[in-house]
């Protein structure tokens, strides 16, 4: 029988990333655990890249989807009224805190960010965009154009003109070592300088992730984007918070990641965890911004009946079970446990994040030189011990930890023990 990996390589693109030297096929899931095609079960600490926010086989979500399937309607298109879409939009608009908010649904975070850029450039009649260094916003034409990470920038061609500012990645920032207040002040001065030297002034928007996802869960000081927003407001520049990975309570402290910065953005984009595996994303924006388009548009699959009834069940589950509080409590324990490991393992350069969104950056002992080979070994060693984690960062030297928000304390302890052993076996303490 032909191996699945050989068939994959024959018909799928070479640039489609796969984890592990022996790639994994997941065939079953329950709770926070998944089982591969060889019958091996793993504790999942990456959750389909933060998408399976509730974990696997959640009855409330499955029942809602089955009920919709029983109607015979998987799709009607946005040319018709969709009750579950309207109800979900009402709830997201309320939760956003954005005045007079309106919502547009897409199928992914990439689509959501593309839509936000289209709205901002149309509203401001400008193609100039500010983005963060080390950022990632998707794989489409405009979102690749604003991605501040060469490893994910497939083309220099872009429909927008982008200027990058400092601040999202303190560990390798030229302002490293400053107090949080002085760091923010330096980044604000850089923003002002970029506006004066790299733009013609009439910038459409700034887009930023409150915690940089693909960038290795890089976490700026609280208040940075609030300080940025004051400068943006002086120029009428819109602020977009990319909440594709930080939304729905994952950071613990706030329901949206931007809540740590004391500012209400003009737009927020979302996806991933809202569907718990169903394809859904979207933009929530000030009404006048959302309504600025002068042409007709639809979203063929965005906000379809199956996705929106499932997403409503996910959102209800998150709030009914107070998963934001669980993320805060277990996230604090995860950070503490990893920082204990870092004390004795010189290959751990930085442990950062919030809630159940934590990054571990690996370096060569005695300095800050990135150690991507160590991160790769940790990825393999954790799998060998029954734990799935993520990997990323500008230098591909960061292990990303983002388990389902339904994680239990016992599962956290299990994961920490595996991580300690895996790091030790990968170049750390022996």
Summarize this entry quickly.
The chain is α/β, with parallel strands linked by helices and 430 residues long.
Q: Can you walk through the features of this model?
A:
- The chain is of the alpha/beta class and 430 residues long.
- It is built from 13 helices and 15 strands.
- It has a 7-stranded mixed beta sheet with strand order 4-10-9-8-7-5-6, with helices on both faces. Strands 1-2-3-13 form a 4-stranded mixed beta sheet.
- β14 and β15 (398-401) form a beta hairpin.
- α12 packs across α13 (409-425).
- The protein starts with a helix and ends in a 5-residue tail after the last helix.
- The model has no long low-confidence stretch (mean pLDDT 96).
- Keywords: Aminotransferase, Pyridoxal phosphate, Transferase.
- Homotetramer.
- It is an enzyme of class 2 (transferase).
- Its cofactor is pyridoxal 5'-phosphate.
- Its EC number is 2.6.1.44.
